[in-house]
Specification:
With 351 residues, the chain is α/β, with parallel strands linked by helices. Helix content is 30%, strand content 25%. The chain folds into 2 domains: 6-295, 3-Layer(aba) Sandwich (Aminopeptidase); 298-345, no CATH class.
């Protein structure tokens, strides 16, 4: 298993980070002007329209036999993967690094960098018809779900990358660290059997984790593999399309998800390189060495020796066309074994 050099990927990111994208609220208007600078390297076309007739774009690059499909922002308020993809686009458009050339020689990559532009505009998980695209794999009620499924059927990828964001509540089991990146090889049915497809998916995740452990050791978790009958990844995996779920999470003091963007970029690049480099994907046991995600955090906890501790969680809202994070009190939680990303301790005055 060949793992990329941490200094190489860090240098590549620093050189090619897309500076036009920042923060958590990324809309179609933010990426629309960026396609033009990639048109000489990528095949760029419109996949279709959203429910509210916003364009859904796709970018294709590479000449290899291994087909890889990557999509982001099927949940409109989960944009970290989108930023990482545009960082990657800059690399392919502007760098002559042999590793990038090897990926494009051995693979054909198809990207959908914003599947849910309607939800992205108003910063919601759901689409314009209140449909969660990640729970619409069977019914395909949403236009966006239909477009993704048609792309899957036409392209027939060997691997898929399904890019999401996860909440700040998740930490890495056995540590006091947030789960900055979490991986999942989705189950194909309720028993969570280790099928050949899951083995191949786990094998790629093992390589991605190996790189991240060099850079952010003990900040990587394993997302629950509970089977969701209507979820996209579970159903794509069941259909025989190996699907790698990446959940970009919190890093200390990184509420804009800029550090997690960087680590998501590293994970994707390592995953693509691993697929390009190998024809056999069998070794998977180390996947289960990745600690579980554990719900252990709140954004703020007030600690008071003489009163009950109180937890607060940020709720993101669009107010006056600005993304605003508002602390809301959490009720009914036992905070004894919980950690505040920010903790405020109140001491009583001595008499």
């Amino acid at each position: 298993m060949t793992i990329l050099s941490s200094t190489f990927v860090q240098s590549l990111f620093e050189q090619h980070k897309e500076l036009a994208l920042f923060g958590k609220w990324i809309q179609f208007k933010d990426i629309q002007s960026l396609f033009e600078k990639h048109q000489n390297v990528f095949q760029i076309s419109q996949l279709g329209f959203s429910e509210l007739q916003k364009p859904i774009m796709k970018l294709k690059i590479g000449t290899g036999e291994k087909r890889i499909l990557l999509w982001s922002q099927m949940h409109g308020n989960e944009s970290t993967g989108t930023k990482a993809l545009f960082d990657l686009f800059n690399c392919f458009s502007n760098s002559n690094e042999p590793i990038l050339k090897e990926i494009l020689t051995n693979c054909t990559l198809l990207f959908i960098p914003m599947l849910n532009p309607d939800g992205s505009e108003v910063y919601t998980r759901i689409n314009a018809n209140s449909i969660d695209l990640n729970r619409d794999a069977l019914d395909k009620l949403a236009i966006e779900s239909q477009l993704l499924r048609q792309t899957l059927d036409d392209f027939k990828p060997h691997f898929c990358f399904n890019l999401h964001d996860q909440r700040t509540i998740f930490g890495v089991e056995g540590t006091k660290n947030p789960a900055t990146i979490s991986f999942l090889a989705p189950s194909e049915e309720v028993s969570r059997a280790i099928t050949q497809g899951r083995i191949q998916t786990m094998n790629v995740i093992v390589a991605m984790n190996a790189l991240l452990q060099q850079i952010i050791p003990n900040f990587v978790g394993r997302y629950t593999d509970e089977f969701y009958p209507t979820a996209t990844g579970d159903n794509f995996q069941k259909l025989g399309y190996n699907t790698i779920l990446i959940e970009s999470g919190h890093f200390p003091d990184d509420y804009n998800r800029e550090f997690s963007r960087e680590y998501t970029f590293y994970a994707i690049l390592q995953g693509l390189f691993h697929i390009a480099k190998n024809d056999v994907f069998e070794s998977y046991e180390s996947y289960f060495d990745i600690p579980n995600n554990e719900k252990m955090f709140f954004d703020v906890i007030h600690r008071n020796p003489n009163k009950k501790d109180v937890a607060y969680q940020y709720i993101d809202k669009i107010i006056d066309n600005q993304l605003v994070s508002i602390l809301e009190k959490v009720v009914g939680e036992d905070l004894k074994n919980k950690i505040g990303l920010n903790e405020i301790v109140f001491y009583s005055k001595l008499n």
